[in-house]
Structure formats: structure tokens, C-alpha cells
Amino acid sequence: MSRYSDADHALALAGVFQGARMTFELARLGHTDEKMLQAGVATLFVTHPRTVAEVYGSPTALEMGLRHFIFQLSSPQDRNPEVTRYSIRLLQLGQQLHKQPQRLQALGEALDNFQSRADAFEFDAETRYRQLAEIYREFISPLPPRILVQGDPVRLRDERIAARIRAALLSGVRSAHLWYQCGGRRWHLITRHRRLLAAARELLESVPSEI
């Protein structure tokens, strides 16, 4: 990947916001869109994409992220402060990974090993989320700034939900790292605000409507 468009940047940021939104929903409600979560997890294993779009497969896989990215940037007075905070933290963690190639390589190897085991032993969904959560604990949790997830204490103590939260955060970190790979910087959210919103809206319009 060498040249990046506003659409490329909007896709990566939508992935960040989708990870943040899923984290919020899981922590507060105990559930999120399972298809969106699975789509986020799938991006972890696209390691040598030729384009940014190839990481996500289709804007449909980022519908939640695109909607919340547009909402958060276009309606600052109504934005969800928790989703904003998670998104900022994910971008910071993506930057940390970008600066630590050895950790990034080790993370990639851990994900490759996980995928090999998952294929060989046909892990069910709960096992997959649980093991991805352990990968998050090992490679992402030690990095500053740590993400402090707020929500319903009962839900946060539920190991099944907690594993999904970490999987959602891991998918958000993957998109945040991609954003930095594409030359994205946090100040672009201000200086390229209108361009990114326009690109996100165009991508969302390409998502087929359910009938």
C-alpha cells in the first residue's frame, strides 16, 4: 500500500470508532452486533493487504463504525463521550504499536499461531473470543494509555462479555495502527474534518439497505 485517499482514511477511522462503539455497547448493554464484531476480528488476520479496502472486505462490515464516526464528528454537542474517549485511546494505542515494531511483530506471530490452532481444532466462538482476549492482555494491556472501560459492573464481571470487549478493542487497535500506516495523524480529525466526513458519508451510502 503506497497511496492513500480520504476514503482509505475514513475506512480505518470507522474501524476505530466501530471498536469503540462495540466496547460501549458490550459494557453497558451486554451485547453488540455479532456480525460487526466478527467482521472486526476478521481484520486481525488480513496481514498483507494490497489496499485498505481489502482489510475490511466491504463498507458493509463497517456500517456501525461509519455511522458513529459521522455522528461523533458532525454532532459534537450530542456525541457520546465514552465512545469518543475509547476512540482516542485506541488511536493512541495504535500509535504506540506503530512505534514498537518488535511488539507489533510478536503480536502478529501470536495472531498467526492463534489462527492455526483455531483452524486445526475448530474453536467455537466463545473459545476464539477468550483466546483473543488473552492476546489483548499480553500485547496491548501493558501499553500506555490503558483503556479503562466503564459500564454495568455485573456485565463487566461476566467473562464472556469481558472477552468480547477485549476482542472489540483489539479490532479497534488494528484499525488505529492501519490509520497510522496510512499516514493518518490525530490532528487530521480537525484539519481534514470535512473531507473525512464526506468520504465516510459516501462509503455509508454504498452500503446496501435492508429490505
Number of DSSP helical runs: 11
Write down the CATH class.
Mainly Alpha
Overall geometry comes to globular
> Any low-confidence stretches, pLDDT <50, length ≥5?
none
> Strand pairing plus helix content: what structural class?
mainly alpha
Secondary-structure element order, N to C = HHHHHHHHHHH
Number of strands: 0
How much of the sequence is in beta strands? under 5%
Query: How many domains in all?
Result: 1
Terminal CA distance: 36 Å
Query: Biggest β-sheet, characterized?
Result: none
Assigned CATH superfamily? HflD-like
Per the CATH scheme, the topology name is YcfC-like
Structure description:
With 211 residues, the protein is an all-alpha fold. It has a single domain, classed as HflD-like (YcfC-like), CATH 1.10.3890.10. Helices cover 71% and strands 0% of the residues. The chain has eleven helices and no strands. The chain has helices spanning 6-29, 34-42, 52-56, 63-74, 81-98, 101-121, 125-139, 153-157, 159-181, 188-191, 193-205. It is globular.
Keywords:
71% helix, mainly alpha, 11 helices
